[in-house]
Specification:
single chain; about 475 residues; Amidase signature (AS) enzymes; 17 strands
């Protein structure tokens, strides 16, 4: 009997193992599509991670790949592996809402560059993952599809904005998923769901066509259950594209090599808070212990951190300017359909002066130079990926931690967005669990263009903790 018959265990395979079986012909793309469909049917009523499916499109794509067996394929060939795509990203012929009532019935004619590249490398889109409206906010809910729930405890949030992707991976609905990250939207959901979420360098993953092709705060990257799976997907996502002026050439050494044969860093820095933010006690303890795992491997671990002073104001200014550039026309014409947080962010951007933006750009440049100098001494920077563990799914955002109140809906993810400003690649890797069984992630930051280094470190931590072997998880109702 082939592995594909019945498919009972297929959803438990790593992406790397599934692709290996696809390439050997021991399982077919169609069998994986059906296995994913069964798992989604069995679990999504509890978590609402993939509210839009495109199963017939996926089956047709699987049949085409199967008919072309034996044809020469590009490197990083995924062989017909089903993936989820975030609902911010266009997929041709598939409802793409951006989590907004404004686009509730939108069906794009063309896919985003990233989707085109993934499909050209043998990925099969099986559905769209849930996201907050326009990706704004670090908890996944919207007026179109409602809330996404955490499979580790369905009473808890999955964070955001790539929350549907993280939950789908943790529950075994798909083997790989894309995410986007402006202020932590890959890393915070990864932390809340015990998966890998990798924010690459700007330009590493081509995107668009976009009205704002030169912006560098928001990027797209892979999400997966293991470091090697994330590397596998990143290899399939990379490469220059003429419609993205910032896109980078694919590296000469595949990222998968760094994850499969990891090298220990020599010297790493650990900061429990980046010198900026309160961190919940239990989260800090778990992340400090995870950083200690590297010391147990013989790595020199020191408590140190670049100077992030001014990072909160700098990010909030540049983020608001981006909201105004991108969404101001909707504020004029569809204000009644925008959620309050989006309205606030657009209006904040419209109120900025040229001097405000100029100061923020200069501050960002100064921060980059401080961080680049820091990485002349340290190979990596480690910190908590999020300052809290998963919270009640009915809470819109965190307002207070350890006695400090936050001014707005996005400030609580500052431990992630401070890193965004640097342009350095960063990922969240599973670090441990709270006493109540909720996931906590460790943020691993690399030097500029250092994706291979952070994937290698994530693979080492994964081996040390064994957490990846607990995935996928059957959705757990609140006890």
């Amino acid at each position: 009997m082939s592995l594909g018959e019945g498919g009972a265990a297929l959803h438990r395979l790593t992406a790397l193992d599934a692709v290996t079986l696809l390439k050997r012909g021991e399982v077919t793309p169609l069998e994986l599509v059906e296995a994913a469909a069964r798992r989604i049917e069995a679990t999504d009523g509890l978590i609402n991670a993939l509210p839009t499916l495109c199963l017939e499109r996926a089956r047709d794509h699987a049949e085409r790949i199967m008919a072309e067996r034996g044809r020469e394929h590009p490197e990083a060939w995924l062989g017909g592996l089903p993936v989820a795509v975030k609902d911010l990203v266009a997929v041709a012929g598939v409802r793409t809402t951006q989590g907004s009532p404004i686009y509730a019935d939108h069906v794009p004619a063309r896919s985003d560059i990233m989707v085109e590249r993934l499909e050209a490398h043998g990925a099969i889109v099986i559905g769209k993952s849930n996201t907050p409206e326009f990706g704004a906010g670090a908890s996944t809910f919207n007026e179109v599809f409602g809330k996404t729930r955490n499979p580790w405890n369905t009473a808890k949030s999955v964070a955001g904005s790539s929350g549907g992707a993280a939950a789908a991976l943790a529950a075994g609905q798909v083997w790989l998923a894309d995410g986007s990250d402006l202020g932590g939207s890959l890393r915070t959901p990864a932390s809340f769901n015990a998966v890998i979420g990798l924010r690459p360098s700007p330009g590493r993953v081509a995107r668009g066509p976009s009205e704002l092709p030169f912006q560098t705060l928001s990027v797209r990257g892979p999400m997966a259950r293991t470091a090697a799976d994330a590397a596998l997907m990143l290899d399939a996502m990379t490469g220059q594209h003429p419609e993205d002026p910032l896109s980078l050439a694919a590296p000469t050494r595949p990222f998968l090599e760094a994850a499969r044969a990891p090298r220990k860093p020599r010297r790493v820095a650990y900061s429990p808070d980046l010198g900026l933010f309160p961190v919940a006690r239990e989260v800090k303890e778990i992340c400090t212990a995870a950083a200690g795992r590297f010391a147990e491997m013989g790595v020199e671990v020191e408590q140190a951190c670049p100077d992030f002073s001014g990072a909160v104001e700098t990010f909030q200014t540049l983020r608001a300017a981006g909201f105004a550039a991108d969404l101001a026309p909707l504020l004029e014409t569809r204000r009644d359909l925008l959620k309050p947080e989006v309205i606030w962010n657009i209006e904040k951007g419209l109120a900025l002066t040229a001097d405000d933006i100029g100061r923020a750009e200069r501050a960002r440049g100064a921060l980059y130079h401080r961080v680049a100098a820091f990485f002349e001494t340290y190979d990596l920077l480690l910190s908590p990926a999020a300052i809290v563990a998963p919270f009640d799914v009915d809470i819109r955002y965190i307002e207070e931690v350890e006695g400090r109140r936050f001014d707005n809906y996005i400030e609580w993810v500052g431990i992630a967005f401070a890193i965004t400003l640097t342009g350095c690649p960063a990922l969240s890797a599973p670090a441990g669990f709270t006493e109540s069984g909720l996931p906590v992630g460790l943020q691993i930051v690399g030097p500029p263009r250092g994706e291979a280094a952070i994937l290698s470190a994530a693979a080492l931590l994964e081996e040390a903790t064994g957490i990846a072997r607990r995935l996928p998880v059957d959705p757990q109702p609140a006890s």
